[in-house]
Automatic annotation (TrEMBL):
Name of one Pfam family that matches: Acyl-CoA_dh_N
Catalysed reactions, as listed in the record: a 2,3-saturated acyl-CoA + A = a 2,3-dehydroacyl-CoA + AH2
Molecular function per GO: acyl-CoA dehydrogenase activity; flavin adenine dinucleotide binding
Domain Acyl-CoA oxidase/dehydrogenase middle: 122-217
Residues in coiled coil: none
Name under which the protein is recorded: Acyl-CoA dehydrogenase
UniProt keyword terms in alphabetical order: FAD, Flavoprotein, Oxidoreductase
Species per Swiss-Prot/TrEMBL record: Polycladospora coralii
Annotated Acyl-CoA dehydrogenase/oxidase N-terminal domain residues: 6-118
Phylogenetic lineage: Bacteria, Bacillati, Bacillota, Bacilli, Bacillales
Alphabetical list of Gene3D superfamilies matching this protein: Acyl-CoA dehydrogenase/oxidase, N-terminal domain (1.10.540.10), Butyryl-CoA Dehydrogenase, subunit A, domain 2 (2.40.110.10), Butyryl-CoA Dehydrogenase, subunit A, domain 3 (1.20.140.10)
Length: 380
């Protein structure tokens, strides 16, 4: 067993850490306050090769692996949870299914610009009436000659509005339930495809979340991803890896909160000594660090399994479940360590606490992660 990161992975961490401190952290509070997405940050990630870390060079990637990818999401999220999810939704949710199920033409036309960071990706599964019960979707796709016509809507779509390429799921045969779901690639600007309400959120406020709408939206059959009826499996398999991206986001947010709380505890004096030397605070810091380390190990393990092409769905669900839960605990404790100051927007920990909450909800609530894990336990 090898618990030390390779030189390549250490270099990835160093590069993304430096980028995050220079280009992401300085505006994180302001972007949160203004609920503003900054496309130039994603563009720069593209220039560094971060938008296509695990994909082969032939399709525009840099030929690294899923461990490098989660390290990148972690380091971005350490300073800004919104930037972390921008990359995670782009890479795990939009690019991955095209990489896995796309044909040669689809990879050239859609995956390459995503991998090079020239286009931003999004994933449309959730609907107003189907969240956890993803198979209950109502958006339809009806075959019409060489096209499909899409009607319906999706909600809570990360990167929507700004993204150019969307992987969306629609029902092609309602009688077949989940076996009647099909995946499509839809481009921004397609007639009949538009954007609805932009959500005002508790956290990850500089990551855009919008409703997307299909009204007689005509998509060429060449943009069907996989076979008719394969969509639900594609959606689920995509989430298997996506969940580990969210685990990495949660680890990063928690680490950012610990970094801030530790620095503050060392400087803050009460009762004649720094609070970092007082047991009540030491116990908190020790628990926070231990929880983060455990979550990180689960996350890296799941990423390693995926890179090695070994089964990773259960590991990924465990990583997301644990990392999401501890991110909420750690960030709440960080606010507690800062006391009254932590409750103000002067310090980043209140933003981190707000950002952490979503990691227990999206890409399958943590209750759904327990269902997924238990299903594997029973099957195994
Ligand atoms: N891989 C491959 N196939 C899978 C699979 C997986 N991980 N999970 C399920 N399937 C297959 C099953 O094998 C089964 O196939 P057969 O019919 O051929 O036997 C089929 O799919 C149906 O499986 P289930 O009966 O288990 O399906 P279900 O309807 O009971 O749902 C669920 C299972 C786990 C609850 C699923 O609906 C789920 O994951 N729900 C949560 C949805 C979710 O995570 N949404 C996130 C939205 S995206 C997001 O949040 C992004 C963002 O903002 C950043």
């Amino acid at each position: 067993m090898q618990f030390k990161l390779s030189e390549e992975h250490e270099m990835m961490r160093k590069m993304v850490r430096e980028f995050a401190l220079k280009e992401v952290e300085p505006t994180a509070a302001e972007r949160d306050e203004e609920e503003r997405f900054d496309r130039s940050i994603f563009d720069k990630l593209g220039e560094l090769g971060i938008a296509g870390i695990p994909w082969e060079e032939e399709v525009g990637g840099v030929g690294s692996d899923f461990l490098s990818y989660v390290i990148a999401v972690e380091e971005l999220s350490r300073v800004c949870g919104s930037t972390g999810v921008t990359l995670s939704a782009h890479l795990s949710l939009a690019s991955w299914p095209i990489w896995k199920f796309g044909n040669k033409e689809q990879k050239e036309k859609f995956l390459r610009p995503l991998a090079e960071g020239k286009k931003l990706g999004a994933y449309g599964l959730t609907e107003s009436g189907s969240g956890s019960d993803a198979a209950g979707m109502k958006t339809t796709a009806v075959r019409d000659g060489d096209d499909y016509i899409l009607n319906g809507s999706k909600i809570f779509i990360t990167n929507a509005g700004d993204a150019e390429i969307y992987v969306v799921f629609a029902v092609t045969d309602p009688a077949l339930k989940h076996k009647g779901v099909t995946a499509f690639i839809v481009e921004k600007g397609t007639p009949g495809f538009s954007f609805g309400k932009k959500e005002k959120k508790l956290g990850i406020r500089s990551s855009p979340t919008l409703e997307i709408l299909f009204d007689q939206c005509r998509i060429p059959a060449s943009q069907r991803l996989g076979e008719e009826g394969q969509g639900f499996k594609i959606a689920m398999m995509t989430l298997d890896g996506g969940r580990n991206g969210i685990a990495a986001q949660a680890v990063g947010i928690a680490q950012g909160a610990l970094d801030a709380a530790l620095a503050y505890a060392k400087e803050r004096n009460q009762f004649g000594k720094s609070i970092a030397k007082q047991q009540a605070i030491q116990f908190k810091l020790a628990d926070m660090a231990t929880q983060i380390e455990a979550a990180r190990l689960l996350t890296y393990q799941a990423a390693w399994l995926e890179s090695e092409q070994l089964p990773y769905a259960k590991a990924s669900a465990m990583a997301k479940l644990y990392a999401g839960d501890i991110a909420m605990q750690v960030t709440t404790e960080a606010v507690q360590i800062f006391g009254g100051y932590g409750y103000t927007r002067e310090y980043p920990v209140e933003r981190m606490m707000r950002d952490a909450k979503i990691t227990q909800i999206y890409e399958g609530t943590n209750e759904i992660q327990r269902v997924v894990i238990a299903n594997y336990l029973v099957k195994e």
